[in-house]
Fold RING-type domain-containing protein.
Amino acid sequence: MSLPDPVQNNCSFCDRYELDMYRDDNIMNNWDWSGCGENVFYIECKVDYVLEKIDNDDEKVVHELIESAVKPYVFKFDFLTQCRIKARVICNMLGISEDSASDVAEQVSTFATSQINDPQNSASKIVPIVMSFTIIYVQQDGEDINTARARVLLNTNTEFRLPPIVPPPNPTNRGVNPFSFEILYRWTLKHGDPVHPMCSICINDPSLGETIAILPCWHSFHLHCIIKWLEINHRCPMCRWSFSKKIANIGTDNAPFD
């Protein structure tokens, strides 16, 4: 899958990243998870955007925290079947090179699988997990410190990274605007992309050139199919997630991280 290059929008990939994952039952009290169902991971995703700079006085490397974000996700246990695709989307949103997506997917998949297989969780239908990302940008040679800070701050705004969802040419005849619902990501399938799950609305496999939409609950469909669906139904066709529950979009706006 070829995702948009952030550089085209004056954004850039980070120089490196760190990812730590651990179980934390305390996040159960941090968010309103009501209505999120069972057999799910409750995931609190923490992101720190850090500038690595050189202290000219003693030539030591210094890390400065520029911005932080904390948002909730809800993933079904079966999300592991699409972990690679989800990792690519997350990496692109956070400014992590797509080349690292496989490593992120492997780390997330390994940890999530260990939690599912842990005997202590055998009776659990909800597993609370923290994903803690540190996104590191290095101050460039000759770069003014304020310019470096501004560059990192620009890259914290993932609205620049998300391709726009273009409204359908014809308005719906039911007065419902499907684009009032959050579509987390979309892309057009190209040669060499990984095999994508069948669209459960039309019961057809996606073909090259067709546009796929990922909903906030991480289920994916043909873009044109989900538009028609949302005209008459406000729930995900797969998991029945209600789009009136904003938590699935990791907040109340269209940007997964703001």
The CA atoms of residues 120 and 127 lie 11 Å apart. Residues 1-9, 162-180, 245-258 have pLDDT under 50 and may be disordered. Residues 101-117 form the longest helix (17 residues).
